[in-house]
Amino acid sequence: MIGTTENGTIITAPITTAVNTPLPPMIQATKDYSMFSFVKGNRRVNAPKLKRLKSSMKQVNACHLYPIIVSSNYAILDGQHRYLACVDMRLPVFYVVVDNIDLVKVALINANQDAWKWYDYLNTYCELDVHEYKVFQGFMRRYDLNFSVTSIMLFGEFTHSLYETFKEGSIKIAGGSIERADEWASRVQSLKGTYSFYKDRGFILALVTMWKHEDYDHERFMKKVSSAGSKVIKATSRLEYLRQLEGLYNFKVRKTTKKVRFF
């Protein structure tokens, strides 16, 4: 105890603990814009974002509080929009030099700030020549699919843990996955003329659930699509689609033909 107030409240000294953490890097400033360079694989410059940033900086310039992060050779790891805004407005660039950090770590640091999107990670890993990501990008472009549907085609699922693995740069495409994904994507394309929602994630998830079933017969399904495809309408979830697809698959089957349950 170090004392009391007039009403008797005890005042104690704060407990201090030594923390073994490195000192923060020193913030520096310069108007020599040529000393900086961009990093291969960093996010692409977003013109609307740059315009908004410059507009806000005309009112309040807080760049000294949010310095850009650069490597020891002054390659910009984080803050390329702030850098370009400063260049355009002829303002000093505030920066800190860090070692032992790369783009992936910067992306994880920024996850709760200006979060990277899936295409930022995809472009980064493709620029860095990571094979699986180049395969992913090529497949997505070949079949004109979105990110989640491409994930379902290549990995058979689209989950939070899969996305976390994708962000970390650690996805692995198993042997045989491409052949299976090509077959699935071709099946999806064959439904284009029947269903306007043929690329909906819920619809794709329902299809994949059905295709994985041990009693599924694709020829039987396509005959049902041809004769009674209108029985399946746009829905809001995988389960709703799956109920409809099961109904279509078992529509007017002969008594000698086995009905199949997909859920």
Which helices and strands appear, and what pairs or packs with what?
Blueprint lengths: L2 E2 L5 E2 L16 E3 L6 E2 L8 H13 L8 E3 L4 E4 L1 H10 L3 E5 L5 H7 L8 H10 L3 H13 L3 H9 L4 H9 L8 H14 L10 H12 L5 H11 L9 H12 L14
Parallel strand pairs: 4-6, 5-7
Antiparallel strand pairs: 1-2, 3-7, 5-6
Helix pairs in contact: 1-2, 4-5, 6-9, 9-11
Walkthrough of the structure:
The chain is of the alpha/beta class and 263 residues long. Among the domains are: 28-114, Alpha-Beta Complex (Conserved hypothetical protein from pyrococcus furiosus pfu- 392566-001, ParB domain), CATH 3.90.1530; 191-263, no CATH class. Helix content is 46%, strand content 8%. It is built from eleven helices and seven strands. The chain has helices at 47-59, 80-89, 103-109, 118-127, 131-143, 147-155, 160-168, 177-190, 201-212, 218-228, 238-249; strands at 3-4, 10-11, 28-30, 37-38, 68-70, 75-78, 93-97. The strands form two sheets. The chain has a five-stranded mixed β-sheet. The chain has a two-stranded antiparallel ribbon with strand order 1-2. A hairpin with a 4-residue loop joins strand 5 and strand 6 (75-78). The protein is elongated, with a radius of gyration of 28 Å. The N and C termini lie far apart (67 Å). The model has no long low-confidence stretch (mean pLDDT 87).
Keywords:
263 residues, Conserved hypothetical protein from pyrococcus furiosus pfu- 392566-001, ParB domain, five-stranded mixed sheet, elongated
